[in-house]
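Q: Protein A?
A:
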Amino acid sequence: MERTREPAVAGYFYPADPQQLRGAVKAYLEAAKSEMINVPKALIAPHAGYVYSGPVAAHAYAQLQNSAAKISRVLILAPAHRLAFDGIAYSSDSGFRTPLGTVPVDTHELNRIAALPQLTRLDAAFDNEHSIEVQLPFLQVALNRFQIIPLLVGRATPSQVQEILEALWGGDETLIVISSDLSHYLSYSDAKKLDLATTYAIEALDPDGVGYHHACGRTPVNGLLLAARRHRLTATTLNLRNSGDTAGPKDRVVGYGAYGFH
């Protein structure tokens, strides 16, 4: 029996009303400037509440303005916040619902790679998890018809993430989205310094430069950096801010970066 995963943070991280949500996402995208001419192969986007990270995430998804007809599959790799586990998890859900509708899961491609040893089916890891969900409304507004392969990264290595990326790399029809915030709960000035160092490492495709305190999604980020080096991609910083710049106080901030790879 097929099961659709209901949204966990609608009305909390982003508007639960479809019209309000679509309007908010469109406004974020219209305010962001597109820096890329070519279709990006991969994006890194933050996953906090939209009032905090939405303006930054929009700079990533604005790169898709000329890609709607080309992209039909989105591989999303995100850190797990709610459950500790070894490896990388997928769910038995056939779709993920947001107020804008249901996004189908590409079960064919997921089943094709399910035998990889680092992959495990673990529905509980997706319960009340926001790191994948908050990316979906941006994708729903930016793209046409598409499927997703949603994966949560637990205790895994960058090379294990890279192996999955290589298995699902595909062509222009496949977009990779890495969901990650940057530094957490530092002062405004300290966060800016650390997030800038993280940005330099991402631009240099240097996974050794993105450590524990640099990004909550450091493992999927570093897996992408390994794959980007192999495929000779170029990383571009699209926006770099923190919650003190968007909607929060400056004493304890969370860093957000948007990056494109082409």
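Q: Protein B?
A:
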Amino acid sequence: MQTNSFSYPAAKLLPVFLMAGFLAGAAARAEIVSAVIEAIDADNRTLHLHISGPEPRDVSARVGPGDLLIAREGAHVRGELVTLGGRKHLQNIWPDDPRAIGTIRNLARQLRRDTLQRGRRAFRGIGEPWPRFALFDQHGKLFLSEGARGDYVIVNFIFTRCTVPNMCPAATRRMAETQQLARERGIENFRLVSITLDPDYDSPGILAAYGDSRGIDFGNFSFLTGPEQVIADLAEQMGILTRDHPEEIIQHTMSTTLLDPVGRIFYRVPGSNWNAEAFIRQIERHRENERES
């Protein structure tokens, strides 16, 4: 993916919600469209769209449960319009906000240069700040790394199609447990960030459905997605190794990182064996040290 342009990831597989109820082998041709959401029919999981372009038209299209969760009237979106079983469906939906896209593009260039300049030392260790970047969150809103300043932040990398029990599913469960424990201990300046390793599939709506199905409180928990190169650079700088795998889709290492309120890395646990209490204790100790200094 070129770093001087913004490309929307294209899903490798049709989402399950599109396949249900259709005969095996049904063909679908995707049309990439830009549209404005004019109305939302939640009962029928349908968006009424005005499609722009050389041939403007109004279309009603079914969407996935996650896309319905985050759909907003008046929002500009881009996606793949397909016809299946005689019905229109809009899938792989992404925000089409030029300002947000421009911000992501500009910071992507800086991140790419930074990764190349760091070379073999791209990995950021204890005491270093996390990289500057911008991505979309599970609501389709712009997430800026600098916007997390002032909070303790736990960061990890997952993807929604991961089925290895002790990897992404366990990591998401532990993040939710940590969120609850932080609330019980009265830690208010705290947030969690999970960055997908599979942006080809994990659109904002897919991430919203993933979190919703697990009862995630999105109040201070962001799931992020966006251009593949941005995520590849972030993974490299945060010490995550990935490779394609025929059975697991993506094979990857795991690491969970804790940032202080000025954005510096001050605690990290490699692998998938960590617990909520350890991270909360690190935050409490850091707060105590800051008060004493």
